Amino acid sequence: MPPSSGGVSMILMLNILAQFGFPSGISGSLGVHRLIESLRHAFPVRMNLGDPEFVQISKVVSDMLSPKFAKELKKTIL
């Protein structure tokens, strides 16, 4: 059974936001922008969690939990 997409999505978002530093990197209007962008990146990735008969769930979850993967996504956020 695949994991809940909410938990791993939240971790991916937090890993992306951590790249900006706490709390200064995520405060104010720029912080709101970065939060929205992290959501914009996390939702499409979580769509890859599906039926284990057809999807390599362990690879998707591994990516979503990876700070290195989050760092690559962060590069697209200004």
UniProtKB/TrEMBL annotation:
Question: What is one process in the GO biological process aspect for this record?
Answer: glutathione catabolic process
Residues that span the membrane, as ranges: 12-32
Per the record, what is one GO cellular component?
plasma membrane
InterPro entries registered for this protein in UniProt:
GGT_lsub, GGT_peptidase, Ntn_hydrolases_N
Q: Name one GO molecular function term.
A: glutathione hydrolase activity
Q: Which UniProt keywords apply?
A: Membrane, Transmembrane, Transmembrane helix
Q: Which PANTHER family match?
A: GAMMA GLUTAMYL TRANSPEPTIDASE, GLUTATHIONE HYDROLASE 1-RELATED
Under which name does UniProt file this protein?
Answer: Gamma-glutamyltranspeptidase
Organism of provenance = Corchorus olitorius
Q: Tell me the lineage of the source organism.
A: Eukaryota, Viridiplantae, Streptophyta, Embryophyta, Tracheophyta
